[in-house]
Each structure stands twice: as C-alpha cells, then as structure tokens.
Design goal:
single chain, 659 residues, alpha/beta, Cobalt-precorrin-4 Transmethylase, domain 1, OB fold (Dihydrolipoamide Acetyltransferase, E2P), 5-stranded mixed barrel, 5-stranded antiparallel sheet, 15 helices, 32 strands
Length: 659
C-alpha cells in the first residue's frame, strides 16, 4: 500500500499564528480565549492544561474583573462588540484573528460607510461568519449554497458588496457570482477566500482522484476540514474522516493499493505525523502480504489471471486458476443483465481471463469477476477517448429525469439532460435505444463518474453548417426555411445551418397583430434575405413584386373615390386601410362638414368608410382622404337637381298659361 501525504496538510499561516500567540501568553495568570482558539479539540485541551480557559459569550466577558487578565481573540475573529467590552474593562487584548479575516471586517465596515448592503457566502452558524456579520452596519444576506443563491432576489437598483468566508469552497463561490451576474445584479465582488484554503482544496481534489482511499484528518467542528472531506468524497468513494489515530480503523484499508492523507488547517502536525507513521507501518505489512501472494501463482486481490471452466451452474461458474483453491464467478459478476442462464453462456473447458476480487471469499474459494475486467477494458478506451477528445458512440439503455445512461461496451456513461442536445429537451424518451455519438468530458472511475457530452458535437456541426450557409447566401436571395420559434416580436426561421429573424413588421405588407396568429412552429416558409450583419440574418416576406404601392398612383389618384376600413385613430384624424400595406389619413377636419372634436366621436375601429382622395404623394407613401369633399359634391349635385326641377316646373306653368 502506497501512502501519499498532501503537501498542504497541517496548520495554515493564520491558524499557526493564533496557536503560537495563545501559547506565548499561556504562562500568565487569568488567560482566556474568546471561543476555541481554533477548531481542534486536542489543541484546546492542551491549552486548558496550561491554564488557558475558553469563554464563549459577551456575558462571560462582562463577568471578568476589570483591568485583570488577558483575552486572546480566536483566529476566526469576533464582532466589534467584543473589542468594545475589552476596551471598556481595560483587559489586555491579544488579537490572534487571521489577517485574511481582519481584511473582511474592514471591507464590510467600509461597505456600510458607502451604504452598500453586504452579501456573505458561508455557513451562517460558523464563528467566522458570525464575527463578520457584527462588522456589517446593516443586516447582511448570508448565502450558504448554490441553491440558496438561485432563490435570492435582490434589488436591481442597488449596488451590493459580496465577500466570502475564508474557507468557503472556491468553485461554489464562482458559481454563485455567475448566478448573480446572470440575474443582472450590480455586485462588487471581493474574493476573500484564503489562498491557502483554495490551494489545500485543489490539492485534496487532485490527490483523491489518484488514490484508492483517502483519509481526512481534522476536528469535527472544523469548517475547512469538512469541506476537504466533501471535496475528497466526490473524487474518491472510500474517503474517511478522522480526528486522531484512534479513529482510524486499518481494516477498512485492506486490499487498497494507495492511500492519500490530507488535513484541515486546524490540525496539529503531530497528529498528522502519528497517522502517517502508522500507515507507513501498515504499508510494510501490505508489501510483505503482496510478496506472499506473488509466490502463490500471482493470485492476489486485483490480479488478472487465466482459468479453465470446470463446472457451470445456472448462477455460478467454477474455474481452475492454478491455485490451491478454485475460483468462483457469480452471475452478478459475469454480467449486468438480469436472469441470464450461465449454462447457455459458458461451457466446460472454456478458457477465461478474469480478475481476482477476493483471495478468500470466507469459504476458502477465490472470488472472481469477469464483468469488471470487461468494464476495466472499456474504461481504458473511455479514458483514452477522454484524453484525446475522440468521438465515441453507445446505445441508450436508460432514460432518466436528469439525463441518459449510455452503454459503451461494458461501461456506462451518463449524459446529463443539459448535454443531450443543443436546445432544451423537455422529454428525453425519444432517445431510448438510440445509438448516440458523444465525447467524454469527465472521467473518474474511482467515483464511477463518466460524463458524456453530445451537445458539443451538435454545436460544432451547427457552426460548420452556419459557416457554409453564410458563405453561400447574399442579400435579396429567396430561400426556404422552417419556423423554429415564435415570439411577440417575430419568428426565428431555421435556414439549415443558421437562424434568421423574420420581424413582425416584415411578415406582411399589411399589419400583423401577433406572429402566433400567422405561423406555427414547424411551418415551411419561403423568405427573402433582407440584410446580413455578421451572423445575424434579417428576413422578410415583403417581396418587391408584391408591393401594393407599385400601382397605387393609378388606384388612388387625386379625385378618385375609395373605400377602406378605419385601422386606428388619433386626436388629429383616423388612418384608413385601403388595402394591406396602404394606409391613408382622414384628417379630423375632413370627416364632416360640421366641427368635430375627435374622430372617435363619429368613427369606430373597423368601420368601413367611403371618401375622396384629395392628396397623393407616391415617394412619401402618403394619401389624404376627405369625406367632407365628397359630401360637398353630393350637396352640389342635389342643388343642380333641384334647380333643374324648378326650371322644369316653370316651363310647365308657362305652357299651361299659353293653353
């Protein structure tokens, strides 16, 4: 067994400084620490033996006699109220607050002077965060997780100051910052995570990926140790959290090839050394044990051996592996498939290459696996594909809410729902039993975490098609497309490689109220390319040969009487649609012979009216109408008719007299 000790294990600068200060004053009378000097029981108990007592509240602080004793401020820092009490009582102060924490106190206090609300990422119950809160001049917002950040709603008109607990997970901090940025919040970001903490966490993650087991040493109340455990657990399934050597059960590490050791910032070096030395002794024992196995035909845990089938049952295969005991392959170690009859899969005398799981299964037999060896081989291919970014393919064996399980030979690859397609997929059932191509973006067999990404391939293919399309098309081309998406302002048309926008104003020569009333997703359309700006393509359905203004000068010449519908009204007149794309203005003064205050008092939207064209400007696309002029003509005609009738009656009277 190989033992690897993390370089960053042990006291960090701030913790070491705090412990040294506490020990320096431990020989004086009436020495106290405000809260445990660090989160490590062994250090706290050792200081107690030297007369250093722990007080944990303002009440206890106030109970101390004035002008006597020494109080050491813990490395996590305290609120302003503690300093005020110590100053008032005249008690000697030894400030062992970590310099990184003191910087945060200054940042949040200055933010208060600028009337900036403060956001803290961290554990609200951690003493460091409690201290920071007290230095804020208004109640801060404390965010302890990514989920919490997604739920938080901030004022978009206010600028905030964001700080972090020094031991907060750096990746989570960055994710939270990105969440706020996407929401459009105005935030001054102060990365106050201790560099040593970030380095310690990064090294723990890297080490956990390489080893078969991981040991994290530190106090149960230590926030940074807990984070090291969480990070290591994600990379190495066999991760153990211990405070001292007493908590370490060496039997847990049987058959382990390599073990990594890391420790929290509050863990004394002597405890780390004690665990490491014990592991080193175990290492020598394991090496001797391995040597004894080598003498026995190389049959040891993890070894790959050849065997001959000597017996086959429905759920068990027995092999002669040239060892003092036979090897056994159970059905579950032969295949992942359910209900397989092994007598139909394997025959007596067949040669098999297998892997040793246990030299002694408890009944004197060697437990073997055929399935895991096959998985190892396919995993090796996946690892190579991960390193080279090679495209691989597999069949979807399971559809889950969160994504797809794809079988690659004997290995299983998970493709998250967000990486299945280059667009949102509400239902993944259509992918069941399909063969998909993808690349491997994460490979961690220790954690059984192999992640595939199909989205990248689709995006790359789409970009290729987009480039080809943009090189081919030009303004005024007429092209075919399919309606991909509809919004209130227009429709996005898939042109076969790139999307073009058909704006609502370009859907017709007339007026369109809502694109969804004209199109539906999936409709095929023939469109005109109106403009190309970089990768942005503007489309139109206003074909020039269909422009209603081409013959407008004939249809709407001055003096012509026309009919149309009132489309909209303003205080100065009504706009009348003569045909789609051609509107004319009926001024309020031309609606009637008498005075009218507003068009809406005599007209209504959709009302059909007849009027006379009194002005026409082709270049400006302006037509003016008048009902009043038409009414005058009608009145004049009536006068002429009346005069003609009167003349006729006069002639008739003369004729009667002559008779």
């Amino acid at each position: 067994m190989k033992v690897i000790l993390a370089k960053t294990a042990g006291f960090c600068f701030g913790v070491k400084r705090a412990v040294e200060k506490a020990y320096e004053v431990s020989g004086k009378e009436n020495v106290y620490t405000y809260g445990p000097i660090i989160h490590n029981e062994q250090v706290v108990k050792d200081l107690e033996k030297k007369g250093v007592k722990v007080i944990g509240s303002i009440k206890e602080l106030n109970a101390l006699p004035n002008g006597k004793g020494t109080v050491v401020i813990r490395s996590h820092g305290v609120g302003k109220s503690v300093y005020d009490v110590l100053d008032k009582k005249g008690i000697e102060l030894v400030d062992a607050t970590c310099p990184f924490v003191l910087k945060i106190h200054r940042l949040v206090y200055e933010a208060g002077n600028r009337n900036q609300p403060v956001i803290i990422t961290g554990n609200p119950e951690h003493p460091e965060v409690e201290g920071i809160r007290e230095w804020c001049q208004s109640e801060p917002i404390v965010i302890d997780s990514i989920e919490h950040a997604k739920e938080v709603s901030l004022d978009t008109n206010t600028k905030y100051c964001l700080v972090s607990q020094t031991t907060f997970n750096y990746k989570k901090f960055i994710e939270i910052v990105e969440i706020f940025q996407k929401k459009g919040y105005d935030i001054e970001v102060c990365n106050t995570i201790c560099n040593a903490t970030e380095e310690r966490q990064s090294e723990a993650a890297a080490l956990a990926k390489k080893v078969d087991a991981m040991i994290v040493i530190g106090g149960r109340n230590s926030s940074n140790t807990q984070k090291l455990y969480d990070i290591s657990s994600k990379e190495c399934e066999r991760t153990y959290y211990i405070q001292t050597l007493v908590d370490l059960d060496l039997t847990m590490l049987e058959s382990v090839g390599s073990v990594g050791i890391t420790a929290g910032a509050s863990t004394p070096n002597n405890i780390i050394k004690e665990v490491h030395d014990s592991m080193a002794e175990e290492q020598n024992f394991e090496e001797m044990l391995e040597e004894s196995f080598k003498e026995k035909n190389n049959v040891r845990n993890g070894a790959v051996v050849e065997g001959t089938v000597i017996s086959v049952k429905e759920d068990e295969i027995v092999l002669n592996i040239g060892y003092k005991a036979d090897g056994i392959i159970t059905r579950s170690e032969y295949t992942n498939q359910q209900g397989v009859d092994l007598t139909k899969e394997v025959s007596v005398g067949q040669q098999m290459t297998v892997k040793v799981l246990k030299v002694n299964d408890g009944e004197g037999q060697v437990l073997l696996t055929y399935k895991r060896l096959a998985v190892d081989k396919s995993n090796e291919k996946l690892e190579a594909a991960y390193e080279s970014k090679e495209i691989v393919s597999g069949t979807v064996s399971e559809v889950r809410d969160g994504g797809l399980i794809v079988n690659f030979e004997e290995s299983r690859v998970f493709i998250p729902a967000s990486l299945v397609s280059d667009q949102y997929e509400k239902n993944l059932d259509k992918y069941a039993n399909q063969e998909l191509q993808f690349i491997i973006t994460e490979y961690n067999p220790h954690k059984r975490r192999i992640i595939g990404d199909r989205k990248q391939l689709l995006i790359a293919e789409r970009e290729k098609k987009k480039k080809e399309l943009l090189e081919k098309i030009k303004v005024d081309d007429v092209v075919e497309g399919v309606v991909k998406n509809l919004t209130d302002f227009g429709a996005f048309i898939d042109l076969g490689g790139a999307d073009g926008l058909l704006h609502i104003s370009e859907m017709s020569w007339g007026r369109v109220e809502n694109p969804k009333k004209v199109f539906k997703v999936g409709d095929k359309v023939t469109v005109l390319i109106k403009d190309i700006q970089g990768e942005k393509i503007a489309l139109s359905l206003k074909f020039n040969d269909q422009n209603p203004w081409l013959k407008a000068d004939e249809k709407y010449a001055v003096g012509n009487v026309v009919t149309g519908k009132v489309a909209r009204m303003t205080d100065f007149g009504a706009f009348v649609e003569l045909e789609p794309g051609v509107d004319a203005l009926l001024h309020v003064s031309q609606i009637a012979q008498e005075h009218i205050e507003k068009p809406s008092s005599v007209l209504s939207i959709g009302q059909e009216i007849t009027a006379k064209v009194v002005d026409f400007k082709l270049e400006e696309h302006k037509i003016s109408l008048s009902i009043k002029a038409l009414m005058k003509e009608e009145s004049a005609e009536q006068v002429v008719e009346m005069e003609e009738i009167e003349d006729l009656e006069e002639v008739e009277e003369i004729e009667e007299i002559e008779e």
